[in-house]
Amino acid sequence: MWMEQQRSPSGSSQGPRSPSAQPYLSVSVTDPVKLGNGVQAYISYRVVTKTNLPEYQGPEKIVIRRYSDFVWLHDRLFENYKGIFIPPLPEKSAVEKFRFSAEFIEMRRQALDLFVNRIASHHELRQSEDLRTFLQVDEEVMERLRSYETGIFKKPGDLMQIFKDVQSKVSDVVLGKEKPVEESHPEYEKMKHYIFELENHLAEAQKQAYRLVKRHRELGNSLSDFGKAVKLLGACEENALGKAFSELGAKSELVAVKLQKEAHELLMHFEEPLKDYVRAVQSIKATIGERATAFRQQCELAETIKLKEINLDKLMLTRSDKVREAEIEYRELKAESEEAIRRFETIVRRMNEEMVRFQEKKTTDMGVAFHEFAKGQSRLANGIADAWRSLLPKLEACSV
Amino acid sequence: MMGSENQGFEEAHLYASKEEMESLVLGDASISYSNSDYRSAMSNSLSDTHHPLSPPILPTPADSDPLLAPPPPYPELRNPSSHDNSSYIEPPSYSDVIFSPFDGDTSSEINGVDSPSPSSDSPISFSRSSSSNAEYIKITVSNPQKELEVTNSIVPGSNTYVTYLITTRTNIPEFGASEFSVRRRFRDVVTLSDRLAESYRGFFIPPRPDKSVVESQVMQKQEFVEQRRVALEKYLRRLAAHPFIKKSDELKVFLQVQGKLPLPTSTDVASRMLDGAVKLPKQLLSESVVAPHEVVQPAKGGRDLLRLFKELKQSVANDWGGSKPHVVEEDKEFLEKKARMHDMELQLSNASQQAESLVKAQQDMGETMGELGLAFIKLTKFENEEAVFNSQRSRAADMKNLATAAVKASRFYRELNLHTVKHLDTLHEYLGLMLAVHGAFSDRTSALLTVQTLLSDLSSFKSRAEKLEAASSKIFGGDKSRIRKIEELRETISVTEDAKNVAIREYERIKENNWTELERLDKERHADFLNMLKGFVVNQVGYAEKIANVWGKVAEETSAYARESS
């Protein structure tokens, strides 16, 4: 489990250790099982948590979760930890008939496992209550939480936020501000540009990687068919030549098998990490959006406060009885504004830290992926060379 | 095949087409996905990781990479890495691929793996006759030119036709010279082919290129002309590879005699039938017989309609009639061989198809690998330009290694594919030869039919003669008219007997030829297929090793990451 932060040397399934032991939290997503029927069918996963952290109920806990539960966790973290690049989820759903193929299920399981592990190793995210909920509550509670979030019962706070957003957009237009206010921080601009460009480049690389997987499969298939055809042709020939043909055909089929194997490896250890990279970048884009929102809110509140100040002064001058009310309002607004500023600055701070981590992580991730890719290709090519080479002495013998 | 000829085919427009793709700038050199540019670009900008790319395996003239500058008819081999995502490369169809870079001496040693002598001169015989035969004949077809037909036609501008320069180099003494050229048009080739078919009944005569039924406008298009040139060259080389035909008068005359081809031209079917129809009434009224000398040719190609009908009737009688004809195809071994040939044809066709798919798949693999490399080159450039953190620069360096390897591997796949196409082309060649085998077998069948028809004629003449004699002997003193008829009949019988004997000799001769050819085919096919298999395997091994090498290096360079991951 490469994402484990700390590995306890003597296995992880022991009882709670003495307080001086290293704290650990290890999670794995396993055992995909298809449940339900027809259109409503879905995959459930076992989520196993092993930990000695006091916040958790005991050293080991196993729960059953489905994809939408992971979505719930993701959305909660996204809401509550703005500025942090929340680890990305695998895509929602594939083409219907592909949805339950063994390959797809395995890829999804891996991605979900990675997702949870990344959360568990993030110094801030791992402390989230939502994570604890996700890892521990039983299935009925989880179901309630999940439908509460994704259903029509939106939290009142969400509704307010949506309303406010609309409101502020309207006021923007009214005040003649067609464009929402944006930061103009040159370094940040550069970073945004970088992220958007990066996504394009990565998407292209991922596309080619996927194509390469397909090519391996196609080459494997055509070698297999070729092998069969060659064998049949050999049956028309006599003696040594016929034998040579049939051996070549057999080798061809063997090489085809190697190619199919490598195609799978390529998919799992090269194409998938690239896809993961793309998802990570998309997650950053979402965070960029959050930052923009926070910035805008901060600006708007600052504007509003100014107006309120002016108003308050006016009221004070005229000794209106509305002064008291206005003062209270003003103070509330001030608090809100400070809150907004704090939120924004948290986001900025987090993003800066996250960026450093992101770049480092991705260098490692890609390094591993490249290594696997090169190893796989080298292994394949060597295997192919060996297979064909073994034929040569036999072919030589034929021409004698 | 002229390497220099290909210069005429604009490389420029091919380069232009692949440059829909953005050119990248790594350092100062611009990287466009072309081998020659790429090499210089790589050495310019990637000096810190200078991998001298392995020396070109194909000693191509500097600019004509086989993939970049094939003649226009073969867009299949156009540079594959345009960024037009809908671009689709057709698989090279065997007869279309020109291996111009392989002409001349290409048996170079590459990294210890001997590339098999890839001469495509005469694809079959060269590799076989390399050892023993001092005999050598090489034919080249080149320089197509338009010429005007000299006719009394009122229509202006019609009747232009194309001639080709046919150059022969040989040391065969019968030719009397070592190098000579003539100009011939396609019609001459048809004549040659028809005359050979007559003279070499029973032999496996290589089939000539198809007459194309296209508009005269198309006929003059460069693409069409080039396709035909290639086909003609292949055809003539196959003829020259045939042990008997290469010494034939027909071929000699075709290759050497200047000016008009001194071979009798074939008349078209319509005028033959017309001639035959004119003669038919007379034949029906009189006792028309087939003269012995006519019998050596099949009824089908001639003007004797009566004979044609008779043989047709005979063949129907053979198939449906109650009684067996007097002479039948008894040679069991022949029938077995025939069945085997039929089976082989099926399997060859299948294998040829699968080989084509294989070639396409290999090509695609190479292309996609190249495009992957390209995508990573762009990423490298991007990360380097935008780098804020060292981790980015480090990643860029890793990506560059991967990209370089991918591009190299891509090149290897595509080179491998060129070799593969050449080797597996043998399958296609032999499939084409099956046509010749059919021809030879049908020569045999029609000769037999002629014999059978004559025999049944004979038997009907004889029985008629008997009847007449029996009738006339009843009349004392004889019946003058009947006696005359009997004499005529006896004359007819005698001529027909002669014809029958000639026909039987011809049939036996053709059977002999069939046999000889079958043995030759078996031997040559055995050698050629073995060469094909060896060549194919050797190439697969060689290139797989190269590719393994390339990736092995990258695996090493990234091995630090292996230790980090659990």
TrEMBL record, chain A:
<feature type="region of interest" description="Disordered">
    <location>
        <begin position="1"/>
        <end position="23"/>
    </location>
</feature>
<dbReference type="InterPro" id="IPR001683">
    <property type="entry name" value="PX_dom"/>
</dbReference>
<protein>
    <submittedName>
        <fullName>Sorting nexin 1</fullName>
    </submittedName>
</protein>
<dbReference type="GO" id="GO:0005768">
    <property type="term" value="C:endosome"/>
</dbReference>
<dbReference type="InterPro" id="IPR036871">
    <property type="entry name" value="PX_dom_sf"/>
</dbReference>
<feature type="coiled-coil region">
    <location>
        <begin position="316"/>
        <end position="361"/>
    </location>
</feature>
<dbReference type="InterPro" id="IPR015404">
    <property type="entry name" value="Vps5_C"/>
</dbReference>
<dbReference type="InterPro" id="IPR027267">
    <property type="entry name" value="AH/BAR_dom_sf"/>
</dbReference>
<dbReference type="Pfam" id="PF00787">
    <property type="entry name" value="PX"/>
</dbReference>
<dbReference type="GO" id="GO:0035091">
    <property type="term" value="F:phosphatidylinositol binding"/>
</dbReference>
<dbReference type="GO" id="GO:0016020">
    <property type="term" value="C:membrane"/>
</dbReference>
<feature type="domain" description="PX">
    <location>
        <begin position="23"/>
        <end position="142"/>
    </location>
</feature>
<dbReference type="Pfam" id="PF09325">
    <property type="entry name" value="Vps5"/>
</dbReference>
<keyword id="KW-0175">Coiled coil</keyword>
TrEMBL record, chain B:
<feature type="region of interest" description="Disordered">
    <location>
        <begin position="38"/>
        <end position="90"/>
    </location>
</feature>
<dbReference type="GO" id="GO:0005794">
    <property type="term" value="C:Golgi apparatus"/>
</dbReference>
<feature type="compositionally biased region" description="Low complexity">
    <location>
        <begin position="115"/>
        <end position="129"/>
    </location>
</feature>
<dbReference type="InterPro" id="IPR044279">
    <property type="entry name" value="SNX2A/B"/>
</dbReference>
<dbReference type="GO" id="GO:0035091">
    <property type="term" value="F:phosphatidylinositol binding"/>
</dbReference>
<dbReference type="InterPro" id="IPR015404">
    <property type="entry name" value="Vps5_C"/>
</dbReference>
<feature type="domain" description="PX">
    <location>
        <begin position="142"/>
        <end position="262"/>
    </location>
</feature>
<dbReference type="InterPro" id="IPR001683">
    <property type="entry name" value="PX_dom"/>
</dbReference>
<dbReference type="GO" id="GO:0051604">
    <property type="term" value="P:protein maturation"/>
</dbReference>
<dbReference type="GO" id="GO:0015031">
    <property type="term" value="P:protein transport"/>
</dbReference>
<dbReference type="InterPro" id="IPR036871">
    <property type="entry name" value="PX_dom_sf"/>
</dbReference>
<feature type="region of interest" description="Disordered">
    <location>
        <begin position="105"/>
        <end position="129"/>
    </location>
</feature>
<dbReference type="GO" id="GO:0005829">
    <property type="term" value="C:cytosol"/>
</dbReference>
<dbReference type="GO" id="GO:0030904">
    <property type="term" value="C:retromer complex"/>
</dbReference>
<feature type="compositionally biased region" description="Polar residues">
    <location>
        <begin position="38"/>
        <end position="47"/>
    </location>
</feature>
<dbReference type="Pfam" id="PF09325">
    <property type="entry name" value="Vps5"/>
</dbReference>
<dbReference type="Pfam" id="PF00787">
    <property type="entry name" value="PX"/>
</dbReference>
<dbReference type="GO" id="GO:0032585">
    <property type="term" value="C:multivesicular body membrane"/>
</dbReference>
<dbReference type="InterPro" id="IPR027267">
    <property type="entry name" value="AH/BAR_dom_sf"/>
</dbReference>
<keyword id="KW-0175">Coiled coil</keyword>
<dbReference type="GO" id="GO:0090351">
    <property type="term" value="P:seedling development"/>
</dbReference>
<feature type="coiled-coil region">
    <location>
        <begin position="451"/>
        <end position="506"/>
    </location>
</feature>
